Amino acid sequence: MAAHVSAGNIHNFYLAGQVYRGQAYPNFGFTNPFKEPSWSSGVFKALRAERCGCYSRGVSAITESSKPCTSIRAVSVSSSTKYYDFTVIGSGVAGLRYALEVAKQGTVAVITKDEPHESNTNYAQGGVSAVLCPLDSVESHMQDTMVAGAHLCDEETVRVVCTEGPERIRELIAMGASFDHGEDGNLHLAREGGHSHRRIVHAADMTGREIERALLEAVLNDPNISVFKHHFAIDLLTSQDCLNTVCHGVDTLNIKTNEVVRFISKVTLLASGGAGHIYPSTTNPLVATGDGMAMAHRAQAVISNMEFVQFHPTALADEGLPIKPQTARENAFLITEAVRGDGGILYNLGMERFMPVYDERAELAPRDVVARSIDDQLKKRNEKYVLLDISHKARDKILAHFPNIASECLKHGLDITRQPIPVVPAAHYMCGGVRAGLQGETNVLGLFVAGEVACTGLHGANRLASNSLLEALVFARRAVQPSTELMKRTRLDVSASEKWTRPVVATARLLGDEVISKITALTKEVRGELQEVMWKYVGIVRSTIRLTTAERKIAELEAKWETFLFEHGWEQTVVALEACEMRNLFCCAKLVVSSALARHESRGLHYMTDFPFVEESKRIPTIILPSSPTTATWSSRRLQNISSSSLIDC
């Protein structure tokens, strides 16, 4: 249960799994939570001070050297342990762009859960926002970003991203990414909701796929980069260097061979994407189970702004299609923001246009406004979907701009050049995540973050359309210099790799066929129940009663699942793909609920019926500090322990 301790009339100090909100943290001497989220900032100093006296420097697989260290050759001491200068977790735009740069300085392992292209990047339709038109300006892009983010954005971060964005686009083009051009030969710039100018660079309605193609091609041709597909990241490997938590790599599960593979590295970049599958309907691919956020939380990283879950207003509503899909989709099919940007109009099933009633910007309002408006229409009219109509535009332009959407709809008997598209909101993007500084640094030494897994302060309370790929590109690039500097002054201790307990794979030999079957069935059932709880109680519109109900139901569900596992032979270090994903989904769901309960106002994506207004005094980020490993459930505890013989006082 959350305990609330007053710290002045604007500052609140929450302990709900350790959730903090306030412009100042009691006794931390720390004022602006996003201005200086570096390792030396007050909140991180406080964290380190609390943990002093845990593990010694001797535990580390990595040690600092006063002399420059040379790059290491990619080494496999055995098939189960591999050594690299850099480990990159995730193969979306952030991970691949970073890998290509740091590969100029050392060896790189790119770890990806599925096929390398299977990432949120690959499903991004709309494009990348950047100031490339003479009539546009960095100041205008900044203003649009901060208005969409309900003024919770960090201004310095916003300026950095909007300023550096155009150069990141030019780099992609130089690498072979092909974007649409207009009749004048210049890049065709689209406009989307929340943008005051045309500034969206795109490749029809398959922009993410094109960027992923170009980056992946370059990565696969780089001799310094090794890609390990079908490797599920289990937990980060960390130690305590007296006051500091230090990251040394990651344990993974090779899904194809069912073997645990340990990666030891000097620097780790977490670029594992979001957590859309905490909800039953999401535009995210199946791999988006919040693995990175959960791993980072367990590794003592600070998490921020998890209450801000973006629901895309317009995912394809299958039940409104003339020909229904024969099987349920693994993820909802996205109808890009650009459809509304190009003049698409939203109607309810009575063919009444409703957006002007809710916002003067109508269909071009930011996503949070449009999603809530649709949700309100559905509840008032007891309908399952609304209609998005672009058929009043020229047929050839519709097909040129939205070929992928047109093709998908036509498969199901719907011609978007003549008929409106049935749409419904779906979970889409996590605006919160692992708290990062301006170079992607975290409070865990050696751990950097970029992309959706990170919370940089750019998005605030709601992400502006097409700012996600932009942020990933900018922060992946900004993390390169500090990463390479750290790599060059760090030595690897190969003998230290066995200091961490190795995970054990759940097999029939270990648990028995019947137990494995029962655990698999229960995990699938519990996953569905968790998703339904999140949608019903932690969706687009929330209340304190709904959130506390969700908190209770999630705790009961997790206790039921965890008890069943451990009563049937499961142990702390046992791993299996479905169980580890479930563990991460529970962890992320709890982070979202804890953060939502801590914000007593309605801002951006977080709308509370019992706190329906924006409160200026609460225009501050939500900070989640690590929970105690001794009292946490399995989802919040790391699997690995360091052997007791290594423990000494600092």
From TrEMBL:
Domain Fumarate reductase/succinate dehydrogenase flavoprotein-like C-terminal: from-to ranges: 527-612
InterPro entries associated with the record: FAD-dep_OxRdtase_2_FAD-bd, Fum_Rdtase/Succ_DH_flav-like_C, NadB
Group of enzyme by EC: oxidoreductase
Pathway recorded for this protein: Cofactor biosynthesis; NAD(+) biosynthesis; iminoaspartate from L-aspartate (oxidase route): step 1/1
Keyword Iron: no
Cofactor dependence: FAD
Domain FAD-dependent oxidoreductase 2 FAD-binding: 86-469
EC number: 1.4.3.16
Catalyzed reaction equations: L-aspartate + O2 = iminosuccinate + H2O2
Superkingdom to which the source organism belongs: Eukaryota
GO MF, any single term: L-aspartate oxidase activity
Subcellular localization: Plastid, Chloroplast
Keywords: FAD, Flavoprotein, Oxidoreductase, Pyridine nucleotide biosynthesis
Coiled-coil annotated spans: none
GO BP annotations listed: NAD+ biosynthetic process
Gene Ontology cellular component terms for the protein in this record: chloroplast
Keyword Flavoprotein tagged: yes
Family assignment from sequence similarity: Belongs to the FAD-dependent oxidoreductase 2 family. NadB subfamily.
Protein's job: Catalyzes the oxidation of L-aspartate to iminoaspartate.
Protein name: L-aspartate oxidase
UniProt source species: Arabidopsis thaliana x Arabidopsis arenosa
